[in-house]
Amino acid sequence: MFRKTFDVLYDGQHTGRYRWDQLMKTEKTHYGSLFEINLRRAFNDVIDDVPDEDYPLDYRVCGHDIDCKFSQKLNGWMLPPECFGHLLLVATANDEQGVWSLGIVRASDSNRRLTSNRDKKTQLNPRGVLQIRWLFKNSPLLPNVLLSLDDDTVQKILEPKGGQGRIIELCRLVTGRRIGRNTIATVAQQDDYMARLRDNGHGARTVLRDEGYLIAGEYKAHREIARKLGQPEPQAGEIVSFRVVPAADDDSNTVELEGRRWRVARPDEPVTEPAPKLPTTKKSE
Prior knowledge:
Layout: H1 2-10, H2 12-15, H3 25-42, E1 47-49, E2 59-61, E3 64-70, E4 87-94, E5 99-106, H4 126-130, E6 133-140, H5 145-148, H6 151-158, H7 163-173, E7 178-179, H8 181-188, H9 204-209, E8 213-216, H10 220-228, E9 239-246, E10 255-257, E11 260-264
Parallel strand pairs: 3-4
Antiparallel strand pairs: 1-2, 2-3, 4-5, 5-6, 7-9, 8-9, 9-11, 10-11
Helix pairs in contact: 1-3, 6-7
């Protein structure tokens, strides 16, 4: 949910954005509302709607009224008077650090500051922060691939003017890692972004084959190839790119393709012949 909310705000396919600091202030403020909506949808079997739209709190869970609060910083939650005395579902997430937390606390008199701002909002006091019952604390956020790369690598990926060229650079420079659909959309910035990967004469699979690259997709046969080669297995909507070379008889982690055995190339190992073609497969396979 946190990853999805970040990606919706970045809207990388149309903006090319992938970092929190690229958002406008109003967009950052909107994160909390989007997160509340996504959480409600994800736990529809547990979370109930409040009695009416004018009701001041967000959810009803097992008969308990709960207000959902998000802040990128711990204890940055702003508490309006209408939530005083009620349970709070407090959430925080940091895309750069790659962590998220979710906890429960009551906005009681003893847990919140007595001072307030002009909007009569206040925050948890030190005791209140200690009273948070963490359901998840500093749990790993699904990775933001572009954010995890150094600036020079990102610049090389985004340098080509066309989406096809950028996708080729992405697959060339980011190897041995699961790359999700949203990253591909952000780099391509096109409606048909997944088509940039195709083995169709000018897609990434065709162009990079001469350099020894295989680009495995979500298909069962592709996942099996990645597993045998000791690479991460791409999940739904993901790819994993890696270079291969012919394998010797005593090599481990090999796979047979086009009648020969192959292994993953070492980082600085030269590639002297094209990679084999991946099996042709349908979506359901």
